[in-house]
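Write out the 3D structure for:
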Amino acid sequence: MKKLIYIVISCLLLVTVLCFSFKSKNQKKEPDLNQIKEQIENQIKLKDMMELDKNGLLEVCYVDSSKVKNFYAKINEVGVNADEIIIVEAINEEAAEQIKNAINKRREDKLNQSENYSPKDNEKIKKSTVNKKNNYVSFFVCDDEEKNKIEKIYSSSFE
């Protein structure tokens, strides 16, 4: 009888451990925008960049703030170069798609503006993409080395 109780308890413990480990592997990790912002600002020199507020996000990126849960957006404040870092957490999947479309419009506008007066910036913008992952939309325009670092920080936040 003692042996049977020992076996039952062992089986229950094993099932419990397996359930918890299976659950934790299937959970999506949600990025922490404050942590991403901190890592980017500690690792990348953001010269002449200003942070956008919700009004700026609408004016510059055409993003409706009612669709936004959280965001981090920096653009060049002097207008001398095209550098931008934009990460937006949407309120849901549908809003994320709308935000992606709005930021794609921003990208197209930047391409058109830089086409005749700044070939270097135009190349940076051509290399950029607007990406959506879950409810997050990202857009990075900067030199390749900086862009690679930012993308690494961003993508690792989902792991």
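The chain has six helices and five strands.
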